[in-house]
Amino acid sequence: MKTFLKGKAVGFYLLLVAAAFGIAATVYYLTWSTGNHSMNPVAVAGFAAGVAVNVLLLFWDNDYLVIALTALYSVGLFQLLVDSAGSFADAYQGIVMFGDPTQVGTILSIGAVMAVGIAATIAAGFLKRRAA
Asked: Does residue 58 carry a pLDDT above 80?
């Protein structure tokens, strides 16, 4: 483990943070969506592919993969939010017609966890990931 972390800069550790938040958001989304029968395959693919690219980035540093990682995590996040528009509308109107307004808090918490992962990825893209 000591040799794996040797010669790493701040950007690398931000990728570790992004990986942790990405895995947490993916697991949270999968457990929530299976229980509510609202799983979106595009969101799952975005989250899962993002986690795979994030793990790959820990071993092989590439700027284009950082861009792809940000895009994949964003696809998953925005697919979740677009699919939940009916629940947000119902919560705003105080009715139950298009979605489930009781799930808005869970949707926002999944989105917030993934947003932290996206922000860490973006920051890591601008910082050194290998020590000079």
From this structure: yes
